[in-house]
Amino acid sequence: MNERTAKDWDGGVKKSRTTRTYADGRRVDYTTGTVTMGGVTTAPVGLTALEKQLHPRFLTLAEREKIRDLRAAGQSLRAIGRALGRSASTVKRETDANAVREGYQPCAAHRAAAARRPRPKKRKLLREGRLRRFVQDQLRRKSGASYRLSPTSLRTKSTTMSKSPAW
């Protein structure tokens, strides 16, 4: 037997022809180069995204670890929510979204949440198009500290422009 195969078996890794399934729920498909986490395909996440300080409404890794520990101790969702200072529905959504066959794993859940975080598209004014040109023209025309573009002023000005899906 190959030494790597023995180490994989000891570590709970299952291998088929082109995929390798790890104990934490990751499934690596070598033909497509994708990593699937608990049924959700995710791109690899960098360390900066994992350690980024977020708004308090997002769960932290420490809170996810506490969820795992309290679930292992047999606590109810309401008791876990009280211990975290969050609602029971937040705990339920977290465990449902990130549980794998082996149970809830906080590090894997944190990586999956970090992979879902970034927006795939640019903001509207960063993209080249009619809206960006319109706003730039308005700012050039009305240069001054007191002039500001608001959504209301954009709506009244844009009625003269024909609406298109590019907005």
Layout of secondary structure:
Layout lengths: L2 H8 L3 E2 L3 E3 L4 E4 L4 E4 L2 E3 L4 H5 L9 H12 L4 H8 L3 H11 E2 L2 E2 L1 H11 L13 H12 L9 H8 L9
Antiparallel strand pairs: 1-2, 2-3, 3-4, 4-5, 6-7
Helix pairs in contact: 3-6, 4-5
Provide keyphrases for this structure.
five-stranded antiparallel sheet; two-stranded antiparallel sheet; 12% strand; flat; alpha+beta; 8 helices; 45% helix; 167 residues
What does this molecule look like?
- It is a single chain.
- The chain is an alpha+beta fold.
- Helices cover 45% and strands 12% of the residues.
- The protein is built from 8 helices and 7 strands.
- Strands 1-2-3-4-5 form a 5-stranded antiparallel beta sheet, covered by helices on one side. The chain has a two-stranded antiparallel ribbon with strand order 6-7.
- A hairpin with a 2-residue loop joins strand 6 and strand 7.
- The protein is flat, with a radius of gyration of 24 Å.
Shape: flat
Could you tell me how far the N terminus lies from the C terminus, measured between alpha carbons in angstroms? Answer: 61 Å
What fraction strand?
5-15%
Question: So how many helices?
Answer: 8
- The helix fraction, in percent, is 40-55%
Any low-confidence stretches, pLDDT <50, length ≥5?
A: none
Count of distinct strands: 7
Mean pLDDT: 77
Give the assembly state of these chains: single chain
